[in-house]
Amino acid sequence: MANIKELAAQKEKFLGGHRACAGCGATIAARQVLLAAQQPVVVGAATGCLEVISTIYPYTAWGVPYIHNAFENVAATISGVESAYRAFRKRGKIDKEIRFIAFGGDGGTYDIGLQALSGMIERRHRMLYVCYNNEAYMNTGIQRSSATPSGAHTTTSPAGTVIPGKMQPRKNLTEIIIAHDPAYAAQASIGHWNDLVTKVRKALDADGPSFINILSPCRLGWAYAPEKTAVVARLAMECCIWSLYEYENGKYKITVKPKEKKPIEEYLKMQGRFGHLFKLKDNTTIPDFQAEIDRQWERLLKRSAE
Amino acid sequence: MNKNIVVARTGNEAMAEAMRQINPDVVAAYPITPATEVVQLFASFVADGQVTTEFVPAESEHSALSACVGASSAGARVMTSTSSQGLALMHEILFIAGGLRLPIVICLVNRSLSSPINIHCDHSDSLASRDSGWLQIFTENTQEAYDSTIMAVKIAEEALMPVMVTTDGFIISHGMERVELVDDKEVPKWLGERVVKNSLLDLDHPITLGALDLQDYYFEHKRSQIDAMDHVLPIIDKAQNDFAKEFGRHYPILEEYKMDDAEVAILAMGSTGGTAKVAVERMRENGKKVGLIRCRVYRPFPREAMLKALTKVNVVGIMDRADTLSSMGGHLYNDCRSVLYDSNTKPILKNYVYGLGGRDISIEEIESIYEELLAFKKTGKVDKDIAYYGVRGE
Question: Which of A79, B17, B265, B370 qualifies as a cystine partner to B313, CB 3.0-4.6 A?
Answer without folding.
Answer: B265
